[in-house]
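Handout, tutorial session.
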Amino acid sequence: MQAPELPVGLTQDNQEQQPALDTVAVISPMVGTYYAAANVDSEPYVALGSEVNVGDTLCVIEAMKIFNQVETEISGFVRKILKRSGDPVEYGETLFLIESNNP
């Protein structure tokens, strides 16, 4: 039996590790469905290790047929992506961990 595939950036080894002090969790602002890209033919908004700046779109969450962009509030690097496209998300659920590059 094959182990279940984990989302990008999450491995069996680091699943229980605590984030660094300068790592910020990006949480879902609503209940809905997570999408990593604008559509199935598009590249994901971000990938593991991507550099992001304040206001960059990280993903979209579809709720009641409305697609809502989730933007980062800090600049830094994407260290973990905890969801895959099509996954359901709950309000307050962690979607990403971003390591701040601000001193």
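The second record follows below. Compare its token runs with those of the first.
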Amino acid sequence: MMGAPRALVQRVHSGAGGVFGLLLFVILLSGAWSMAHEDLRTWFRGPAALAPGPTLPLTQWLEVASRHGLAPEALHIRLPDGQRAVVELCASANQCTLELDPATGRELAPVNAADILFNLHKSLFSGFPGRILISLLGVVLLLMIWAGSALHSGRLQDLKRLRRDRGLRVLAHDLHSLIGRWAGPWLLLFGVTGALSGLGALGTVALAGQAFPGAPQQAFMQLLGAPPQVEPQAATTQALDLDQLLHNDAAAHPGFAAQSVTLHRWGEPGAWVEVAGIEQGLPSTAVFERHAYRGDDGQPLGTSSASGRGFWLQAFIAVQPLHFADYRWLPHAGPLLRAVHFGMALAAAVLVLSGLYLWLERRRLKAGAGWQVLLRMVVGGGGGLLAASAVLLCAGALANLGLLPPSVLPGCFWGSWTASLLLAALMPPQRQPLRLLLSVAGLAYLSAGALHLAGSLVHANLVVWPIDLVLLLGGASALWAVRRLTLFTRMARAADANAV
């Protein structure tokens, strides 16, 4: 690609990065948080929140639900698994607000702090329109991947070149190229699944009315499967043993991991039970993998699965687990893939930041318009988000020690991010508080990881030690970046002085 076409691709890549780069960084950083959302909820509860011991039998959860005002006639029970540490009782699958200790049935305080960045990634706090906007950013990411791949050569030495002693601009260029090459397949995965996540839902809603005029809900019934027809039987004197039902389900479906149990018309003629979960080797979710049983004698009524439903429908169903790094359907390789997925999300955020820096440098050297505004937005919005998330985690670790009330955690996040934006807006371009924000982030991440890890060791509960390790490494990396920025700044000033 030479001449005008290459120049056009360069303008597309640079322009899209300049316009959408900050939003992409916010989405990628919050996306990395979202991959560990359930583990972070456990982290924020603290190592002493849950009592040791086995999970209560399912029959007892019906009694617990009644005490909390939830009718067993339509009850959804989310079971603890490799990611979710608690039991959730819900009036429906979409209304789960009650979290309980699996061993005692004790109600747990809500963990709203862990949901802030998760909701930021899902919808920018804007509901369905925000979800569509984020999906469009997935399209932008795909466009930038194509343009970046077209611009950079295929020389093998570029796969390992990282010049650390040639100044910040050269380091950022090499880092941008290096991450773009090594993380290319994962970037494609993020872009494709991110775009389909919202746009696919929008297309389903839009086409449902066309396919089923006057009854668009029929489209969702065909997508999810119709409920079974249950013929009422004579009343039995003995209630169905739900725990035995789960045992029988596991025996009948060896590769199936149950995640939830839903009661339908419980206690009435025609009652039935639905067991939902994940099928080994099948990229799907509990929404589509379901087994139905009679509510009186536990006899199977049928199954619903993504398997055998056509390539395009299976691909659409696979979008969510692939996007959020839910690899529980791969029990052996899943943990490793999840760790790599998380690392690539963080690398993608660094890729965007390095690209933004290169764009700002070109604008600054050419005295281009708008670079000062974007500089303030990047430092306050991007650096501020990094610092605010670190402050949130540090405050969460202090709350676990009883030094802060949990109710102040959201305020710590929003206050830190707002203060960062204001500080960046008020400071001149030459004195932007990037090193200050990185220092705050580094110290807060280190403190959060060390405090939580110490508490985990005291209570002999190291379930979420990988998060503590990531926080310690992230804090050390942020402080290393501060040191490198300081060194590069001194080198630049010395070069300017020698030039004069």
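Points raised in discussion: The two ends are 41 Å apart (CA to CA).
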